[in-house]
Amino acid sequence: MLSESVFCLLTEDLLIRVLEKLGPDRKPWRLVCKEFLRVESSTRKKIRILRIEFLLGLLEKFCNIETLDLSMCPRIEDGAVSVVLSQGSASWTRGLRRLVLSRATGLGHVGLEMLIRACPMLEGVDVSHCWGYGDREAAALSCAARLRELNMDKCLGVTDIGLAKIAVGCGKLERLSLKWCLEISDLGIDLLCKKCLDLKFLDVSYLKVTSESLRSIASLLKLEVFVMVGCSLVDDVGLRFLEKGCPLLKAIDVSRCDCVSSSGLISVISGHGGLEQLDAGYCLSELSAPLVKCLENLKQLRIIRIDGVRVSDFILQTIGTNCKSLVELGLSKCVGVTNKGIVQLVSGCGYLKILDLTCCRFISDAAISTIADSCPDLVCLKLESCDMVTENCLYQLGLNCSLLKELDLTDCSGVDDIALRYLSRCSELVRLKLGLCTNISDIGLAHIACNCPKMTELDLYRCVRIGDDGLAALTSGCKGLTNLNLSYCNRITDRGLEYISHLGELSDLELRGLSNITSIGIKAVAISCKRLADLDLKHCEKIDDSGFWALAFYSQNLRQVSCTTFTQSSY
């Protein structure tokens, strides 16, 4: 009674200020008392629905939301939307500004239009990966006259007609993603550019558009980010259209554009001195000296990704000399990357935060140690298949890179338990990939578990010396894990799965090829891991019907279970 009287003395404004200081998990706070619950319900701005049967009740409870996420409800259909809108006050629709329907493949054009028309303030919609969506759904989206942001990635049925309806109906669009909308052509892009003059972000990746589309896009005076990955019909002629257009362009991505050369990129760069990001992976056979020299004029350049390009020590040295403000550099699968080149690069790029050296097989501890010494602000380092890396450079990383959050050491055979002990000094680690590191054991995993409590994603694919004891330490120290890959870690048994069941935030779990786990362990996971959405059980031969019954009964949020125990490959 005393505690209730004290809380009643607190004003709503004070309670809101306290609430704003809390992290994303507010459930413990709202369970304290009715006042806390009332304030949290009235101020909550975003809600993600995990089970469709709770939708109506939650919308009535949280009536002031601005973002509704239904991406975890792929089976939602038109009838359910009709019921939700017809029952209750539906006051939540008046303030809704963003609607996430990614992968909601059960919702048709009728239900979509009902939702759009019921939300007059709607500014953002995500229907990505609704692969069955076509022009009727596009027509429904065009009813959102205030729409500023639209993601239609992999809406495979949308044609120029559907895009035209959106362009006419949603003239205020600022961000539009059309990636993999394969039926859209130059005609649709041309009309879009004539109607949606406020576009700041446009993604036409993998569309069958030609350089004529870039002529139209060049007329967009407010465009800041242009992405055209995999547009194989666009060539240097198209890039030259951009040279004198899009005066506010800050980022361009021409990755995997087979007909683009250094000449075309030089045209873009020469016309846009304010460029901040350049992506040109897998489209150039070699990074030419004139192109690198041209980068010197980009004083605001922060990000370069040139994956798969042939480079030299001279080129890397020139980048280090000309691009001192770089914060991200992608050299994944680049040929010609050596220790000398990396040392010369980072001597000039001391502000790097993200560095991708995937499959740069000739770099060793010398290069990585120099990176650790020169780039103290590093937050992401990718070293997959750099098999000359050992514990010596990880000692330097642990010593100097305290801000490191993501590290990929996949297939780095020199990584062992000692290396993980050094690495565990990076207490801010969130994502760690150790797949195919066959020399690590439960001892090394325990070091990570004890010192890296913020870990959310861990990949231990084919780490064959990892067993149940390692999982005991892991689940005790890294309680926030959401993604865990244990495929082919054959020492793991049902006891290990019992430890995994303590991970309440786990959503993605890969157990492929675990020959010693049974339905008993799977049941423990199903009962306790309520957020589990994706589960891989391929080649787990000892799991029988009772395990799948447990998943069906307890794991209500499962989107996919992959298995080969039966004739079907996916359930």
UniProtKB/TrEMBL annotation:
Signal peptide interval: none
One GO CC annotation: SCF ubiquitin ligase complex
A GO biological process held by the record: SCF-dependent proteasomal ubiquitin-dependent protein catabolic process
Name used for this protein in its record: F-box/LRR-repeat protein 3 isoform B
Highest taxon listed in the record's lineage: Eukaryota
Species: Glycine soja
Domain F-box/LRR-repeat protein 15-like leucin rich repeat: 409-557
Record-linked SUPFAM superfamilies: RNI-like
UniProt cross-references to Pfam families, sorted A to Z: DUF7885, LRR_6
